Amino acid sequence: MKAIRRFTVRPVLPEPLRPLSDLARNLRWSWHAETRDLFQSVDPERWAASGGDPVRLLGSVPPARLADLAGDRRFLRRLAAVAGDLNDYMTGERWYQAQPDELPAAIAYFSPEFGITAALPQYSGGLGILAGDHLKAASDLGVPLIGVGLLYRHGYFRQTLSRDGWQQEHYPVLDPNELPVVLLEEADGTPAQVALALPGGKQLHARIWLAQVGRVPLLMLDSDVEENDLGERGVTDRLYGGGSEHRLLQEMLLGIGGVRAVRTYCRLTGHPEPEVFHTNEGHAGFLGLERIAELCAEGLDFDSALESVRAGTVFTTHTPVPAGIDRFDRELVARHFGPDAELPRIDVERVLRLGMETYPGGEPNLFNMAVMGLRLAQRANGVSLLHGNVSREMFSGLWPGFDADEVPITSVTNGVHAPTWVAPEVFRLGARQIGVHRAEDALTVGGSDRWDAVADIPDQEIWELRRGLREQLVTEVRERLRASWRQRGAGTAELGWIDGVLDPDVLTIGFARRVPSYKRLTLMLRDRDRLMDLLLHPERPVQIVVAGKAHPADDGGKRLVQELVRFADDPRVRHRIVFLPDYGMGMAQKLYPGCDIWLNNPLRPLEACGTSGMKAALNGCLNLSVLDGWWDEWFQPDFGWAIPTADGVGTDADHRDDIEAAALYDLLEQRVTPRFYERGGQSGLPDRWIEMVRQTLSLLGPKVLAGRMVREYVERLYAPAALSHRSMGPDAARDLAEWKTRVRAAWPGVTVDHVETSASEALAELGTTLGLRVRVGLGELGPDDVEVQAVSGRVDEEDHIADAAVVPLKPVGSPGQDGRWVYEGPLSLDRTGPFGYTVRILPAHRLLASSAELGLVAGPSEELVEAAGLLMR
Question: What percentage of residues in the chain have a pLDDT greater than 70?
């Protein structure tokens, strides 16, 4: 029989065990080994059955066992020690508290998904895992972050396979009462709520669930409440599901409702109000509109409020492909704003103007969430150096007249939260070298360029560690493979072969990620005969573990999964290559440490960062990857291999894949497998391989930390944004908005009229300094409104300046009778070869974060350039 109603019955813990409840509700347990060990000791079998989830564990332990523990002095001593450690962690000073006073009092961090732990399945892939690692690292560093997201009642889908290898999706119902979250409540005990106005006089209500991520509160909005109609209740049903309007409502709830949730949380708890708002990808972009509406309600006009909001906003873009950005039809957005819907006091046209693609190559009828994010943020970044370059090119239309390298989008390369992803065995090996506390600091705060202590670990210990981790992975794979085949309909009698799947002494390659086409899950299958030869080599075999989910609407991705599954089902190779369904955090934490090689072969440059290889590297796994994302930045032959790419303009997709697959096979056959299997002199160990593992840990380890990443965000983005926010009071915001309006109106009258230098010939010697004299027209503007610059550097055959040096020129005297100003300055010839310069005029104001901010620039006319002969050779 089926129940007509479901309850969650929580255990009543004996008084001595009450601290267990606090430990279970703070997600620090997900990266704190001593807390997990304590929960495991409560009931090892039930701990395993709960999937390592303390809330589920405590809900299943019999009262008799709890009574025994309440009288167990040894257990109570351990409980007191772990609870005391959490208290110290929550209240003690950390890295942030030791920094200068001008840091922000609080930062709100918005993301559509957060991967904290498998026990809170609110993530689909890299974006969510990155957001989770960001919160954890901020907690470890003491950064006063408030996370903001949505609570999806179905999370992301669970993946199984049909008998013929086709991906099937399942959406389990999540009961928040069974998750490690609590309702945020008003002082009278009623649930705190936020509401959004919808067209037709309806409302979208949402409760606020709180997940405590160490020191960081994570607020999660849930629309499945009785006050909503059925349609509105389903707004937070599943991650990345539904049609356009469903997604728009999710993103309005995340951005607008999220700001309201932050205000509610700060009102109820006394937490400092955020000075900086960070939107992790464009989904939360509407947060800027809500903050503009707040300021307009206090008396500011829209333009002034916009300047105030921009000053304290940071926007991070994660996609190098336009198709990865949410875009909505103009009319759909218009219907949800204005007098009969949300933000009624703001002119709908002003809302639309923020997101419309009104630039060359854009589609002017589409509302682009990333474009709105960039227009609402004074500071923006990509997530690796290469991705920063790609983003500047991709969004350059928003800053016409500027070279792509001057587009104001910087980069902060992603990192991963080492305590979450480093296997306990790896941590213990490091702790034996330098002590537990120093090892913990090295993994969380970071700061050193190299981990030199790794050099002192004997080869034998490194090799035994790696084999032990590989053996654990083999056990894990066989269990998961057996479960998968049972789900596919196989009987126990058919599955005897699984006991021989994988070998703990064979070179193990891992490949696990989402399955969009650009990540090329099946590149390894391009030449199946060569792959079979690698898998079945008599002396130097390899084995491959593959995992990944295709988006439910992506049949192309599902076909790739099926193609790989069918190959892995072949009885000739199924002991050497496996596909594991339902890739998630629980699987990943076993997979990264157990692999010897982490394979990554995306189409360059479509991988924004790609952090899975970082997690592998922290466990001594070597990377074999296309030079994309973070690997393009940090690759060295000392600790991995680069797959050559064929990304020339004239190469068609099939031919390129053939070339790159052949390069992958060549690397495996000629360089990777020989190094793994060759044994040194007396030790009998693969000493050259072990040295690469050592270099990976000592040189890559400190770079790939989320602690390093969050420190960079604090120093390079959050701190400057907080200073901008503080300097942008109402009067300053009005002044800046009026100045921008005046400059935009007057800019057509700004001209470069004449340029001359003291050089008499087009040939000069290195080290010469020339005098530059420029006559400019400023129209309605004055010298305080602009900066006149000389831009010089080496030039190519088309006279484009590369690696430019910029020197500001100074006005000389007063304007002439014709109203023109004269500017002068030096021009240093500091490099040999073809050399060129030009002159340009940019808007200048003390409150601009970048001289490109307005997208306005004036330079010499083509006639003037031709007349001047502005090249030195």
Answer: 97
